[in-house]
Design a protein that fits this description.
pyruvate-formate lyase- activating enzyme, Rossmann fold, 15% strand, 7-stranded mixed sheet, alpha/beta, 2 domains
């Protein structure tokens, strides 16, 4: 028997559905840890509650698999993840919980922005709305102490009582992230996770910071209208020592060989990055890793330390080759900075990746052609990995508010996901956006010359093993206008 059961809900029609608040798009080639749920599990366990964690997404099981576990463990509380695109699958967990009269809740910035709808439409008892660990810790302590109403006055929480939704206000963002627990890696099947560009397995995600200094209007982190939702948009970070403690743990105790740092922007604080790199080297940690960064926040000294410490890849958000669109979405970068960053990364011996986006406000067929041409040139000239998503107005963001006001949104919220067009403009239909998204993949990602260069860049047997998987997923994507593939 356990006090609290944590669940990463099933896949969406067989498509893996990540449960991270900033990676919540169903993707055929992306099977990652429910890191946020693992944080919550650890927080509850540290409070003295017995816990269990079941990742239905990674083991590709449905609720029929979970029900016997509930019957056996008889949890007093069930906590699940949430993504907007898989909301109807995710919220079925509430129906199962109600069958056994168990309170059910979810967490995240998107459910926070859809609070009233979720409580009215689904079997839902509570939402952890921001800075989740301290909120979960307080709920767990109340449960352990036998408090009658375990949700009353807990900050960062909304809950339903006698048909009424009560919001206890947001919790103050934790200024010292070193106080957070280490996620419950021990309860995850770490050998089952993978991402498209793995070089070594097993791998894990890891966060060493929260928030972002950028305010891109489309982003579920920096673009939130209310900075307190989810992990918060204010940038805060682990100290180098705290980050190294977790890195050393997963490498030495759990045999992790590759880490995907899931920070919005890993390189914001140069000295912190260098200190982490020096620590990896000094502790002789046999691990390789990749991260995301802004093109205006890398330099040669830092990149050289990153390479020495095992960094093999850095992803940069570029979005578009149109300067006006970059300004409109508050990206605050230039195309010159993009190319300079690529050159520095390549010089350091690290593989760059560029993330593009089609359909931001101000987009036209001409601006899309410009972006495709820019991406194609860079992908071939610098032998890098390009990726393209569809501009998606996620609830709670500046982009969502703008799209709703201008009636650009053409789908219900469960169709707001990054591999298909959920919006349309007077000059661009949904079908046109879908067409150009597919064209990006045909002209850039599947460009024969780029693919040849990519083969020459293979450095590990896992990359060879992943080729059939990628081919299968791309063939699926091309036949479905790249839906669920990126």
């Amino acid at each position: 028997m356990v006090d609290i059961l944590f669940v990463a809900q099933p896949r969406l029609n067989g498509i893996p559905a990540p449960k991270e608040i900033d990676c919540s798009n169903p993707q055929k080639d992306y099977i990652i840890q429910p890191l946020g749920i693992a944080y919550l599990t650890s927080a509850a366990r540290d409070s003295g509650c017995s816990v269990a964690l079941v990742d239905l997404n990674v083991i590709d099981k449905d609720y029929d698999y979970l029900e016997p576990i509930i019957q056996k463990e008889k949890p007093k509380l069930i906590v699940g993840g949430y993504t907007t695109a898989s909301m109807y699958v995710d919220m079925k967990l509430g129906e199962l919980a109600k069958k056994y009269n168990i309170p059910f809740g979810i967490w995240g910035n998107q459910p926070s922005s859809l609070r009233e709808r979720l409580f009215s439409e689904f079997k839902l008892d509570f939402i952890i709305e921001n800075e989740p660990e301290m909120t979960m810790k307080e709920i767990a302590e109340n449960l352990k102490n036998g408090k009658k109403n375990i949700f009353a006055k807990v900050k960062g929480l909304s809950y339903k009582e006698k048909g009424k939704v009560i919001f206890n206000d947001y919790r103050k963002l934790e200024p010292n992230l070193d106080s957070l627990p280490i996620p419950a890696y021990d309860l995850l099947p770490l050998d089952k996770y993978r991402i498209p560009y793995n070089r070594r397995l097993p791998m894990t995600l890891m966060r060493t910071s929260r928030g972002c200094i950028a305010k891109c209007s489309f982003c579920v982190i920096g673009g939130q209208i209310d900075y307190r939702r989810g992990y918060g948009s204010i940038w805060r970070a682990y100290s180098p020592e705290r980050a190294l403690k977790e890195i050393e743990l997963v490498v030495k105790k759990y045999g992790i060989k590759e880490i995907d740092f899931f920070d919005s922007e890993f390189t914001i604080n140069k000295q912190r990055v260098i200190d982490i790199c020096k620590g990896i080297i000094e502790r002789k940690l046999n691990v390789i890793w990749n991260c995301n960064a802004r093109v205006d926040m890398v330099d040669e000294e830092m990149l050289n330390w990153m390479k020495k410490a095992g960094c093999f890849g850095i992803g940069f958000g570029v979005e578009t080759a149109d300067k006006k669109i970059l300004e409109n979405c508050k990206k605050n970068i230039t195309l010159e900075q993009v190319e300079k960053a690529i050159q520095m990364v390549k010089k350091a011996g690290i593989s760059p990746a560029l993330y593009f986006m089609i359909g931001l406000p101000g987009e036209t067929e001409e601006t899309i052609k410009k972006t495709i041409s820019f991406a194609k040139r860079l992908a071939i000239q610098y032998n890098l990995r390009p990726q393209c998503t569809m501009a998606t107005p996620y609830p709670g963001t500046v982009f969502y508010e703008m799209a709703e006001k201008n009636k650009w949104i053409k789908e219900d919220v469960d169709q707001l996901e990054q591999t298909t067009a959920s919006i349309a403009y007077p000059n661009l239909s949904q079908e046109q956006l879908k067409y150009w998204h597919a064209q990006f993949y045909k002209q850039v990602v599947l460009n024969p010359r780029r693919l040849f260069l990519r083969v020459l860049r293979i450095r590990h047997i896992n990359e060879v093993k992943s080729i059939p998987i990628h081919l299968r997923d791309f063939l699926y994507g091309l036949s479905n206008k790249m839906k669920y593939v990126r």
